[in-house]
Amino acid sequence: MELRQIEYFVAVAEERHFTRAAARMHVAQSGLSASIRALERDLGAALFVRSTRRVELTEAGRALLAEARRTLHTVTAAREAVAAVQGLLRGNLAVGTIQCLGGIDLPRALGRFRTAHPGVRIALRQGSSPELIDEVRGGALDLAFVSSPPDGSAAGVRLTPLEQQPMVVACAPGHPLATAGAVALAELDTETYVDFAPGWVTRDVTDHALRLAGLSRRVALTVNDVHTLLDLVAQGLGVALVPESFRHKQTSARFVPVAGTAPVWRTAVATTADRDPSAATRAFLAAEHLALPVDRALPVDHDAVP
């Protein structure tokens, strides 16, 4: 088993497509396919179920994927250790982010990091918080800026708080609540809602708050991006509970505070709980003053301290 075969295997497993995996690895598809077949022969097991449109992992492939990612992480750490001795920072930084992130100007932060560390290859992916947390847990992302689940935890992942802000009621300009000073959640009991798809943390926060208040609701319009949600609200197709900062994304809709204790939307930096972060990850978080939890700090080599 060769390191290149492991890299090709992980690329196919993550892309679910041989052509995309070959493009990602900058090799001919025929060469990548031959390498995967050789790996399967070496292991004595099929790793993928191939179809004309999609590639899926077999049970053996799923078992190998976790170990393969750990192997690549170890190799990366070894390369980084040698580079560190030479005073260099190299490697990869794979970052995930939700839409409309607050608490950090991510494009500017990544730009600063690229200037300071041109030897690090930066990759960015945008998605929902559950997707991003899964990819941090699985090793596909080094870190991700996500919405914190209502209970503030996620298995296998560390969530370092970034920002919190109250949720507000978004409604159309002509809605009866648009001119209210504040709106009690009970006043929304008969309203039609616009919201994100089930599983999105922003929706989970709203569902949790309404459940605690003993309220139910009807979500008639489900979307997967912030701007469409606010456009639908502005046209009077429903109301929504959204983070307060969303008011800067849409000028037509009206945003009214929640009376009493408002639901809170929290964002966090997600890092894996099972592996030490890469040198690039540590450098990026340090540059943005985003400290890892104490139990994730690197051990000090006391023999090297004068």
Automatic annotation (TrEMBL):
Similarity-based family: Belongs to the LysR transcriptional regulatory family.
Protein name: Transcriptional regulator
GO function term, MF aspect, one: DNA binding
Gene Ontology cellular component list: protein-DNA complex
Any single Pfam family the record assigns to this protein: LysR_substrate
Domain HTH lysR-type: 1-58
UniProt xrefs under PANTHER family: HTH-TYPE TRANSCRIPTIONAL REGULATOR CYNR, TRANSCRIPTIONAL DUAL REGULATOR HCAR-RELATED
Protein keywords: DNA-binding, Transcription, Transcription regulation
Gene3D superfamilies the record matches: 3.40.190.290, Winged helix-like DNA-binding domain superfamily/Winged helix DNA-binding domain (1.10.10.10)
InterPro entries: LysR_HTH_N (IPR000847), LysR_subst-bd (IPR005119), WH-like_DNA-bd_sf (IPR036388), WH_DNA-bd_sf (IPR036390)
Origin: domain of life: Bacteria
Record bears the keyword Transcription: yes
